[in-house]
């Protein structure tokens, strides 16, 4: 596949990278941050972001078992703990917005596990990866591309 365009304003790129970095720092759990980004990228069919964040997840020590079962996390039993499941449920709800909103139960469960500060960073991370996914998919940036 050939990219439609690789142009992205440097200020836009830097701003999105800064938001993502701040959200990850604030979340304070690098492995969970990568699980969230991989799951959103799966849902959005973003090969570029999947390739990138799967590699980072492995470097952060996320287990191959978690990565293998991420697409079926709800059925994966104890592979994901309650905090991870809450984050993944929120990621799916924010990414897909099937009902037009994030269900109260999903939001409240995430808030219970993350508190106000952690939840704010988790939401910023989810929003940022969704922005990146949409930029990459729309421009058709292929996995592994060095020009984006």
Automatic annotation (TrEMBL):
Residues 20-92 form the Carboxymuconolactone decarboxylase-like domain. InterPro entries: AhpD-like, AhpD_core, CMD-like. Gene3D superfamilies: AhpD-like. NCBIfam families: ahpD_dom. This is Carboxymuconolactone decarboxylase family protein. It comes from Streptomyces ardesiacus.
